Amino acid sequence: MSLISYNGLLSLIDAGVITRVAEGAVNSASIDIRLGEFVLTEHCEISPESRALSIRRVVLRNKEGLSTRKHSLIKDGPFILFPGEFCLAQSEEMFNLPNSISAEYKLKSSMARIGLEHLNAGWCDAGWHGSVLTLELVNLTRGHEIVLQHLDPIGQIVFFKHEPVPEDKSYAVRGRYNNDKTVQGVKLDPTRSIHFGDEEEEAMAAEYPVSVSFIPPTKKNPAQLIISDDPDDEGPATM
Questions:
Q1: From CA 70, how far away is CA 32, in angstroms rounded?
Q2: Which of the following is catalytic: 136, 201, 202, 207?
Q3: Could you give all domains of the chain from N- to C-terminal order, each with its CATH number?
Q4: What is the pTM of this model?
Q5: Is 136 a known active-site residue?
């Protein structure tokens, strides 16, 4: 497997392996990519009366997604990523990888230097096609908001040339995230299953709401955090 450099990257653009590339985006061994229109933000509900945070449990083995809201950087304006906050974003560029090309997303160092992190999920298998790249962004700072705007430079993509993979092993056949024209959360793969524990645990597919209530401190009692996995338990009656 070999890294593709400048002239080869120009050929990939000409062949439509990556489209909607900005002028001047080709570097010595990578192509700059920009933020696309949509962001999926985590949707959390907090009761104004009880100040209880409704926490939704995500079961990993069931490939469940987060509860999110879609934000348009064009229609709704810039998105403010608060300290510790997570969101899913997308590239403006689209990808059509042949069976002989794989790619990997890398965060730009200028983004890392302001505390914007991308989770380690940037590998793109050969055969992935018709899709924008979904980005997993986190604000790691303690006291700075990060403003995300449409077409902001957000990272770079590197491409690797290798032997063609068999057609039946290509991401074009096996992948869940082909033809995604916008940012996507988790998709369930109906053709596969993951087994970790006994049959009773694997049959557990329902959602399990968890109630978390915060009771502020008083002169007599310290602050309390009450956690309940009873869906009918609304927490303490008084705060």
A1: 24
A2: 136
A3: 2-183+199-228 (2.70.40.10)
A4: 0.71
A5: yes
